[in-house]
UniProtKB/TrEMBL annotation:
Signal sequence extent: none
Keyword terms, alphabetized: Membrane, Transmembrane, Transmembrane helix
Annotated protein name in UniProt: VWA domain-containing protein
Residue intervals passing through the bilayer: 6-23, 62-82
Database matches in SMART domains: VWA (SM00327)
Gene3D superfamilies: von Willebrand factor, type A domain (3.40.50.410)
InterPro entries in UniProt: VWF_A, vWFA_dom_sf
Residues in VWFA domain copies: 97-300
Pfam families tied to this protein: VWA
Amino acid sequence: MGFLYPLVLLLSVPALLFCIWFIRMQYLAIREISNLVHPSKVSKLTMLLSSKDGKLSGYWKFWFYQIFLSISFLSLVVSLAGPNISGDSKIESNQTSVYFVFDGSWSMDAEDVKILDGYSFVPRTRFEESRFHSMELLKRNSDQVSFGVITFAGSAVQHSHPLPDPVWINDILFNQMNQHNTFYSGTNYVSAFQELINSSRYLGEGFQVVLYSDGDASEDEKAKGLEYIKNFSRLGIPVHVVALGTIQGAETDLTFNLLKSVVSNKNLSGDAAGNDYEISSNVSVQKRKSVPDFEFLRRIAVETGGAFIRTNEGYAGFDELSDAIHTAKAKKQTLLWEAGGREVISPYFFLLPFL
């Protein structure tokens, strides 16, 4: 438990001393007066606290009220300090939005795509397949739900490859999707998942996730991703996973993007300092073999109640994904207006003396 205004708690010490002093003064006053009158008249000192039948209250009731008022006063002081516990400010809403989340890391440049029917274009790499797959899925469902886009590990400034296609991203964001659109370039699964959770405070309606990835990441990154995905399970947010690549894996060039500063360009990247860049050339650093981790991706889908599709099995899964999206659309989701934040419990402290 924490406090929004911990300094206010400093007042609790003088408040406690005041209550003790006040009760002591009343006790001394009553004792002094009782010594001046006949014992049979002492009960009249508490005549203010008489019962309905007119009988005078005893000392026990008088002191009970004094202690009650003191506890109430102390509870008020603690309530002003803003006591809170870890929790989430939340509301419930239907899952009527879908976020496409694209893994744009270097491994997604591997060329081990199995050609599937249903694509408008022939994909060359895993990343291209994720684009074409999402465009087809969007085409089939755009009249039913709204879509948004999040990418991670795909910025030129981070020297990772391949780059998100700025023209395609812009076309999806501004021309096709119209609602709840976010473009984010993080560096791992957790950063993308955090952005999704935090976005719920802006959406105003529930959402689902379609994750395009090959699962090729470090063990530490995958462990952190699985740990964070528990938040999606807790909130009832399904993550539908489209696993890309083949079991055998494929070699790909790990490239280093040489950048040059530019004044203005539609297809550019920026860094935290506000500088704009475009690629001048790509330099191959080394060849690496990328082997997908389908079990990792399957766990994400299973733990969140989402669909799991492996395109290398020759199945695009458009119908299955569409059905899963429409089924989840009718379900209630907890929206976090302050995800992982604080739940204020001041009213409980204020009402504590009355319990």
